[in-house]
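Re-run with default settings, no changes from the original entry. Doing this only to confirm the output is reproducible before filing.
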Amino acid sequence: MTIIAAKRDGKTCAIGGDSGGFEGDLVVVSTEPKVWKIGNTLLGACGTWRVIELAKRSSLADPFKLRDYLAEQQNLSEDWSVLVVTARVIHEIADDFSVSTYRDQYSAIGSGNSVAFGSLASSISDPKIAVQQALKAVERHSITCRAPFTILTTG
């Protein structure tokens, strides 16, 4: 699994992800970022490299269109999520193809999400710094998160 963390403040947003890939007890560090940007929308995915690859190649920033595109794909494994983040809203597309909209100004997906949520909830800093802090906290407290981190921002 992985960690994808995001925060918004109404004017800007940030998203970050780790570089770890895991196959059983094997850890690899990928050069392919798990977060990307389409216009003023930031996206990140976890759970399977295939979902990351398909979501990136789709070039879709609308969470409902991206959900529909992913639903059309063959043989997607379970246990994946995609965050779609703008300065005003955070959506999550889950492996059951539901789209959730978060009320809070932050979210996290992946195996280290509980640590990231705690860090983001207690952060009063700007979105980029909050995401950096959350990723570092997850790396320290989870064996399924590996630097280097990729952090993207808007605004």
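The radius of gyration is 14 Å. Residues 3-145 form a domain with the Glutamine Phosphoribosylpyrophosphate, subunit 1, domain 1 fold (CATH 3.60.20.10).
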